[in-house]
UniProtKB/TrEMBL annotation:
Organism of provenance: Streptodolium elevatio
InterPro entries listed in its UniProt record: Homeodomain-like_sf, HTH-type_TetR-like_transc_reg, HTH_TetR, Tet_transcr_reg_TetR-rel_C_sf, TetR_C
Annotated protein name in UniProt: TetR/AcrR family transcriptional regulator
Alphabetically ordered keywords of this record: DNA-binding, Transcription, Transcription regulation
Portion annotated as DNA-binding: 40-59
All residue ranges annotated as the HTH tetR-type domain in the record: 17-77
């Protein structure tokens, strides 16, 4: 779902952490520039200014490197917003997705990873774990909205968050339509309208849904 990774984020640590950071940054740059098919461990080592042996020993394959890159991106992802209303929270989520997907580095990087996931199961599993982390993080704002009585009880927060970002990824990967704040807000508002109508509740179809 939402990528939610602000460019330029770093994390302090010892030598091992610094090597990992440099290699993952280099891997992300290479993916953004050339895509998954041209990702090469030797090139990543050169970009990161570390020994090839270190890269091959720790990551072994390009798919292993991409899996670790996605894990790192999930660790560094921006925490969800808390605006006080579900509409505000969903708009913040959608705008963060748009900022990420339109970033000069992050946008091409995600396209490359998604393309790789279509033909490599290990990459696909890593991508699923990444999005599961982000969806779970942002689903909390839906749970809070339920507690405030804004939306129907038993609303599935994960489904709501998926509904926010799905049209934005469609624009990125399929239609080529603009990705901007207006499209982000429309996606959030559409998901909210469906949520208020009870579309994402766990109730049976014959059970009326009302906010408590």
């Amino acid at each position: 779902m939402t990528s939610d990774v602000e460019p330029g984020t770093t994390r302090p640590g010892g030598r091992t952490a610094r090597v990992r950071e440099a290699v993952l940054r280099a891997a992300g740059d290479a993916l953004a520039e050339h895509g998954f098919e041209r990702l090469d461990l030797a090139d990543v080592a050169r970009r990161a200014e570390v020994g090839k042996t270190t890269v091959y020993r720790r990551w072994s394959t390009t798919t292993g490197l991409v899996a670790d890159l996605l894990a790192d991106m999930a660790e560094q992802s921006v925490s969800r917003s808390a605006t006080g209303t579900l509409r505000g929270d969903l708009r913040e989520n959608a705008r963060l997705v748009v900022r990420t997907l339109t970033d000069p580095r992050q946008g091409p990087l995600f396209k490359a990873v998604i393309a790789a996931a279509t033909c490599d199961e290990r990459t696909a599993e890593a991508l699923r774990r990444f999005y599961a982390t982000r969806i779970t993080e942002w689903a909390g704002c839906v749970d809070q909205a339920v507690a405030r009585g804004e939306i129907p009880a038993n609303t599935d927060g994960r489904e709501v968050i998926r509904a926010v970002s799905a049209p934005l990824y469609y624009r990125l990967l399929a239609s080529g339509d603009p990705l901007d704040e207006a499209s982000a807000d429309r996606a959030a508002d559409a998901a909210l309208a469906a949520t208020l109508a009870g579309v994402y509740t766990a109730d049976t179809p014959d059970t009326p849904n009302t906010a408590t």
